[in-house]
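ligand=iron/sulfur cluster
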Amino acid sequence: MSDPRLVRLPLASETAIGARCSLADVLRAPFPSPRGAYLHVPFCRHKCHYCDFYSLVEREGEDRQEAFVARLEEELAAVSERLEPGAVEIETVFIGGGTPTLLRVPLLRRMLRSVRRWLPLAPSGRLEWTVEANPETVDEEVAATLVEGGVNRVSLGAQSFTPRLLRALEREHPIESVGRALAALRGAGISNLNLDLIFAVPGSTLEDWRHDLDAALALAPTHLSAYGLTYEPNTPLAVRRDRGEVAAIEEDLEAAMYEAACGRLATAGYERYEISNWSRPGLACRHNLLYWRNASWLAFGPSASGHLAGLRFKVVPRLGEWLETSGTPALAEWEQLDASGTFGEELMLGLRLVEGIDAAWLESRLARHDDAGSRRRAIAAATADGRLEEVAGRVRLTPRGTLLANTVLEDLV
Ligand code: SF4
């Protein structure tokens, strides 16, 4: 539901090793202390044609929600037994999907209780617990269930406030449902609220995008994520584009939309802290910061990706196959990064952040890991042509480099 760059850090090489390999087979107990946990709920009411997250629409008469929650509980219990005794408290939980709020309320309640039961969560004052939701799935009962379960942040997939563009995205919710969902959540006591927006939708104009930004701001979220539409390989949208049925908008217009977001959101008092993420001061998403700072997090549920002390792994993706597994999460892919690979990821992730990376740290790592000098040359080239800069001891993307971020980051990995 949110952008794949947030939750799906790809493995550097895909090592398929079969469903019988579990996290416990790959990682000796006790597992190193994680700082966060991600849980993936795969159910959706409708499959949006641009989406390449693992999610499914159940067929008529099919109902695997209860089986899903039961297996998730088993994963949580099995991992919990293997955590280091006195493990560091988990400070962030993110339940994404799919559409987690499509779970029936008793099952949603049961899943939240199980997270509390099995994971060493920080006390509520220090815990950020986010659930993703589609606007039309949130009512007073769902909002109360989330609060009762300990959730204190919700990320809503608004995407657009222009009916024509919602149809172009194959999104089903009525525009008013976003305001209704926010009111229900605020009424229940959740005030930390993100809206996801998508720009560069086929057929959209700069005026459409300005309207969407203003409509989102009128709802006063604490956080906004704005991503340009991507044509992920093999999605129905990409197939339609390749057939000439849909035209991607011009790159210059997409860049103008991004710049419009930067200007409008800054004027409204939102701080950009990552390429595509803005928040009220102090309310950056702490869970996503774990990803960008290359910290460790657990992963549960089909297709979820995790990272523990240099081990990157992805849980088996298909619900049917996942339901047949037992014990700790069964892995579809995993890779233990070497020191140079870890350094490459730290660069790629850290430079997405507006704060950039510490220049002294960068220099010490380059001296240790960059024998061939390729990364040093890439940094020098990006600095010389104005895509990277060093300011007050931090190396970061310039405004121009932010627009061209992929060209910088790919060279560094
Ligand atoms: S609701 Fe979100 S996760 Fe589900 S298909 Fe649409 S974009 Fe994908």
